[in-house]
Input
Amino acid sequence: MTKKVIAVSLALMMSLLNMGTFTNVEAREKEVLPVEENVQYTPPQEETPAEETSAEEVPAEAVEVTYEEPQVNKRVIDPTKPMVALTFDDGPSKYTAEILKVLQENNSVATFFVLGSEVNKYKDVLNQVIAEGNEIGNHSYNHKNLKTITDEELYKQIQGTDDLVYIASGYTPKVMRPPYGISDADLNKKINKPIVKWSIDTLDWESRNTDKVVAAVLNDVKDGDIVLMHDLYDSTAQAVKIIIPKLIEQGYQLVTVSEMSEHRDVTLTQGQQYYSMYK
Ligand code: NI
Output
């Protein structure tokens, strides 16, 4: 700013020399303004937007507000109480927002294992998923059986999806779920993330039946379970409307996979796989 003030003062002095005496205030304002503009163009660095935002007229607080973290409901996790991690694979899709609404209404979160191929189609929903405190996991680019592809292709499936998520949202997935849950120790080692599988399979993709999905969860659920669902079907979105309030009524806290690991003292480790986090 000091530099700018000096530059402007110089401009004023120069304009005084060029113009001689002012006749009136109007004339002064009229003449000084264009000169001041010219001065801004003299040093090329002064034109950058960064220089603009650092100007004193913009209060520091206002600049910070622009980069403030999205407002997330404050949830307090009680490690002594039971918890369940709901997970949704293969999205984002047109049903994701409906599931997010139920989670929000119940002050709950889940983990969404997204496909790289869907990220740009549902960029806004992806950002909403993150803004509302949910976790994003990597589910490969386009759902190939990762055991059947070359190492180079594997790298693209994983890193390419991370990159797409990052470019769309600034978020980097910490955990990975291989398509179909297919992986072995060798593949897990090549995937440079903790591998998250599941302890309850709702088979929602097969039944496409709300009652069956509800029953698959509620008949079997216990503290530390990781539940597999897909945010791809209306039947699943409808089931979630029943499952989430019911689990809360039963005293469960709905948390992300990473939150559950923290509160269960499980260190999520690259190359290791996790099916549940029982006490
Ligand atoms: Ni899948």
